[in-house]
Amino acid sequence: MPQEQYKTVREVADRLKVAETKVRHWIRTGELRAIDIGQGWRLADPDLERFLMRHETAPRRPDAGPEGVP
Predict the structure, then answer these.
(1) Domain that holds residue 30
(2) Residue 8 is inside which H or E element, if any?
(3) Domain total for the chain?
(4) What is the pLDDT of residues 26-53, one digit of tens each?
């Protein structure tokens, strides 16, 4: 079984370029799964990936460049 990597709320907020309060809101509302370890929330990489996939607007086109435009 592969060992999961866990991120802090700050790391997720930095990655997504949102406020930490927004990440905590997603956790509170159940949109984003997290584990409370007593010293703060931790988020598993697979849970973050599922969250991001659920919030996609459209699949990326294979011929798209870095900005999603051909």
Answers:
(1) 6-54
(2) strand 6-8
(3) 1
(4) 999 999 999 998 889 999 999 999 999 9
